Predict the structure of Adenine phosphoribosyltransferase.
Amino acid sequence: MSIYGDYIKTVIRTVPDWPQPGVNFRDITPLLQNSSAFRKLIDSFVHRYQDMELDAIAAIDARGFIVGAPLAYELNCSFVPVRKKGKLPFKTISETYTLEYGQAEVELHSDAFREGDRILIVDDLIATGGTMLAAAKLITRSGGQVVETSTIIDLPDLGGSSRIREAGYGVFAVCSFTEDE
């Protein structure tokens, strides 16, 4: 957790029973609307990564872009979008992953990275870890080296961060929520 993790957690809104009964949705909208909280959020990532050698931030569609773009700017590295299937205009590589209700696919431009580039993956939330692991596989296939995976929120009860660590990747989360919080 970051130095601002406890504060950031208080700004995130929990919406019970959305999008279906029994689900506690973690809404980052209040975090984005609060300029002080948003600055502390970006600072949390900057402080974590300012001394690491990074070539690019790979941000996952779409909420990962919210953190990924300002972080890439602050760290003076490139920004690469990992998009949902069919959203990139050039030659792509893709990775399919399993969801609770089926499958999804993410894509990356085939020329996004050079061999050995050091990449940080950013998203808003880790639940089951499928999207993050698919992005990591894409980056590895394209020649990049995943330095770490990072997110605003970790939901450890859903097992995603454990799956990501078991796959050999580090995980950084600004804050985490258990199911009963």
Summary: The chain has a mean pLDDT of 96. The radius of gyration is 16 Å. The helical segments are 5-11, 29-33, 35-49, 63-75, 130-141, 160-166. The chain has six helices and nine strands.
